[in-house]
Amino acid sequence: MMIIMKKKFLVWMLLFAIIWGNIPLSSYADETDGLGTEEETRATISNLEKESKETKDAIKQLQGEKEQTKSNVKNLQDQSSALQSTINGYSNKLNTIDSEISATEEKLAVVSAEIVELDKQLQEARQEEKERYELLKLRMQSTYENGGSKGLLRLMLESGTMKELLTKFEYINAIVAYDKRKISELKAIQDDIEAKSAVVEQKEAELDAYQSQLDEKHDEIAGLTSVVKGQLNTTNSSLSSEKTKLDDYDKKLAELDKKMKALEAKTAAAQAALAQQIAERLARTKEDTSGSYSASDNELIWLAATIQAESDGESYTGKLGVGSVIMNRVKSSAFPNDVISVITQPNQFAPYRSGKVEFIIANGPNSTCIRAAQEVLAGARVGDYLFFMTQKWADYYRISEYTMIGNHAFFYRWQTKEAPPEEAAEAESENHEEEAPAQEQQEEPQEEEQEEEHHEDEDNDDEEDHDDEDDDDDDDE
User: Fold this and answer.
1) What is the pLDDT of residues 372-422, one digit of tens each?
2) Are residues 289 and 385 in the same domain?
3) Which domain-ending residue is among 204, 227, 249?
4) I need a labelling partner for 83 at 20 to 30 A (CA). Which of 101, 394, 414, 460 fits?
5) Whether residues 245 and 287 fall in one domain
6) Pick from 229, 249, 269: which residue ends a domain?
7) Alpha-carbon distance 83 to 232, whole Å?
């Protein structure tokens, strides 16, 4: 009997162990596996965000270097233009000097010809004077010195009468006077020619000096031109080098932009995967996120500022909806358990990342948003929603169930509808052809077809720029 009871006891213990082992241990293992997958996805997102930040920093640095290079190019272009203008000015001066040199050379040629002609005339006058002088000397010798048949004494003795003597004497005197006069005229001509020669020679000397000055000035400007041309060549070489740098920067920036888009696509995919993982975990059991929260004054201001940043253009119910999402997350095990940590959680609230929330904090949230924040902190909720976004993006992501409050679609779980086969095929084709969607705010608006990160970011700057009420909505982490 004791043996039978022991056997029954062992059977019951075995059954109890099986039941105990199968139910709770299996459930715990599933939950642990799910959390492990979420942690891995969060780690992946964190690494992608880190790499994205490094890539953005690299882009920013390259853009700064590119702007500096563009400034260098502008300065070098200005220098090149200034140097070229200087060279053009020197060239004009050289042309003017060359013209003056040519004109001076022409004047020198004329003066040289005058000097040659005057020298010729002077030589001829001197030769004629010499001949006249020699002739006069011969006559004087013949008349006064030779004493021959032509001598003066014989001439006087041979004269028959006084009248004849005087006539012969006057004739001789007339010839002598003529020769003297001619000699005087020739001397006057020589003096005039010598005076003209002196003037012309002085003019030639002045022209020679002026031409020497022009030659020196020409050489000086030619030397300056050579120096400036060397500077221009150096400047143009530097300019070419800087332009090459600009091309390199454009190539590097294009590569980094491509890398950034790929990282954004990977991050968006990881965010979607994380949202699905959280949705699957939450689907196992629905948490009670109701109740009040004892918030600090700082948390109240942060909550009110975020409500204002996300729903300033929405109704009061819409503001309560945004506040409800934040407080439901605080109460949920899937998110941080304090207000500021929920708001500042990576890639969750675009207005926080853009600095808009802190800007509102610095200036003070409006009274309506403070009142809405106080109500949700006190336990008021418009639903158990953990996510919100505009209807456009809710439909884009094919969220299966959501509630519209104003312009925002609110929902508890990230559950999606299956796309029709033809749309799925088209989407797959577009994924290969189109660039990946951006998860961070971009400088330019993105097309509606582009996917956004799975939280409040989904409308990015294109909607923020138009209306605060279109601020990016909350989704999963």
Assistant:
1) 999 999 999 999 999 999 999 889 888 889 999 999 999 988 888 876 666
2) yes
3) 249
4) 101
5) no
6) 249
7) 6
pLDDT of residue 282: 66
Please check whether residues 225 and 340 belong to one and the same domain: no
Checking if the pLDDT of 232 tops 60, the result is yes
Greatest mean pLDDT among 14-23, 75-84, 121-130 lies in 75-84
CB 135 within 8 A of CB 183: no
- The torsion defined by the Cα of 157, 159, 162 and 168, in degrees rounded to 10, comes to -110
Question: How far apart are alpha carbons 467 and 471 in whole angstroms?
Answer: 7
Collapse the DSSP code of 147 into the 3-class scheme (helix H, G, I; strand E, B; otherwise coil) and give the result. Answer: coil
Provide the token pair at 300: 């109240």
Phi-psi region of 385 (alpha: psi -120 to 50; beta: other; left: phi over 0): beta
Does the structure show a pLDDT above 60 at 463? Answer: no
pLDDT at position 43, please?
86
Does one domain contain both 233 and 352? no
- The verdict on residue 334 lying in a domain is yes
Cβ neighbours of residue 100 under 8 Å, at least 6 residues apart?
214
In order of 142, 257, 306, the CA distances from 171 in angstroms are: 14, 125, 144
Say whether both 285 and 228 belong to one domain.
no
211-213-218-221 Cα dihedral, nearest 10 degrees:
-170
Are 177 and 110 within one domain?
A: yes
C-alpha–C-alpha distance, residues 468 and 69, integer Å: 38
Give me 177's structure tokens: 């006077």
A 10 A CB-CB count for 6 gives 10
- What's the token pair of residue 198? 């002196």
What is residue 152's predicted lDDT score, i.e. its pLDDT?
Answer: 57
- H-only helix segments in 141-161: 152-157
Residues 306/322, Cβ–Cβ less than 8 Å = yes
Closest CA to 325 of 414, 376, 370, 386: 386
Residues spanned by the domain of 225: 74-249
* Strand order from edge to edge, sheet including 387-390: 387-390, 408-411, 403-405
59 neighbors 253 (Cβ within 8 angstroms): yes
- Does a structural domain hold residue 40? no
Q: Is residue 352 part of a domain?
A: yes
Q: Count up the domains in the chain and report the number.
A: 2
And the tokens for 272? 């979607």
Give the distance, in angstroms, between the CA of residue 244 and the centroid of all CA atoms in the same chain.
13
Q: What percent of the chain has pLDDT over 70?
A: 74
Q: Are residues 82 and 216 in the same domain?
A: yes
Per-residue pLDDT band at 292 (split at 50, 70, 90): very high
Residue 185 maps to which CATH number? 1.10.287.950
Question: Would residue 390 count as lying in a domain?
Answer: yes
Q: Mapping DSSP to helix (H, G, I), strand (E, B) and coil, where does residue 347 land? A: coil
